Amino acid sequence: MKIEEVTKSIEVVNEAKLYLIDMDKWYMVENNKAIDGVILGGENIFRLLSGMAEFVRKHDGFSLAVYHYNIGPIKWIWASCIIYKVNNMWQRVQIENIVCESCGWKGEIANPTIPSLYDTVKDRQGALNFAWNLPEVKCPKCAKKLKRNAIWAQ
Ligand SMILES: [Zn+2]
């Protein structure tokens, strides 16, 4: 299976090419386990990917993206992340479960400040600085600051 067969669009985010998965074709990835002849990962990776796929299906504004991660001068593997559209720009995020320390609210947040999200980005520090400066959302219940950086919470 080729990446073009399961991609809805290609976006350049932080000067790195991301392939946005067409979720109607996700089952093809789950069945094949490999794209362009490169296996996405073992059971654990696929459990993680299935969780990510389920999340982006349920929540507007999010997409599942895969990208090349170089592990040598000519070798690469697939890496993946969830991206979220803020101010018309895609932002890499990590979805986290969180509890508000002020009111006990429990929910999910999108955190853009995880360094490993930007491993393949040339200006990694610049991308991280940008992520830290995005407008933060507060607790949806009590409006206090959350202990983790969030640009989305629900
Ligand atoms: Zn709260």
Features:
binds zinc ion; alpha+beta; globular; two-stranded antiparallel sheet; 9 strands; 154 residues; seven-stranded antiparallel sheet; single chain
Explain this structure.
This protein has 154 residues and is an alpha+beta fold. It has helices spanning 3-6, 26-32, 43-58, 124-132; strands spanning 7-13, 16-21, 34-35, 38-39, 62-70, 76-86, 89-99, 106-111, 152-153. The protein has one domain. It has a 7-stranded antiparallel β-sheet with strand order 1-2-5-6-7-8-9. The longest helix is centred in the N-terminal third of the chain and has 16 residues, at 43-58. The chain is globular. The model has no long low-confidence stretch (mean pLDDT 96). The structure holds zinc ion. Zinc ion is lined by residues 100, 102-103, 105, 139, 141-142, 144.
Largest sheet: 7 strands, antiparallel
The secondary structure category is: alpha+beta
Which compounds are bound in this model?
Answer: zinc ion
How many structural domains does the protein architecture include? 1
- Apparent shape: globular
Q: Determine the oligomeric state from the structure.
A: single chain
Structural topology:
Layout: H1 3-6, E1 7-13, E2 16-21, H2 26-32, E3 34-35, E4 38-39, H3 43-58, E5 62-70, E6 76-86, E7 89-99, E8 106-111, H4 124-132, E9 152-153
Antiparallel strand pairs: 1-2, 2-5, 3-4, 5-6, 6-7, 7-8, 8-9
The site of zinc ion has 8 residues, from loops.
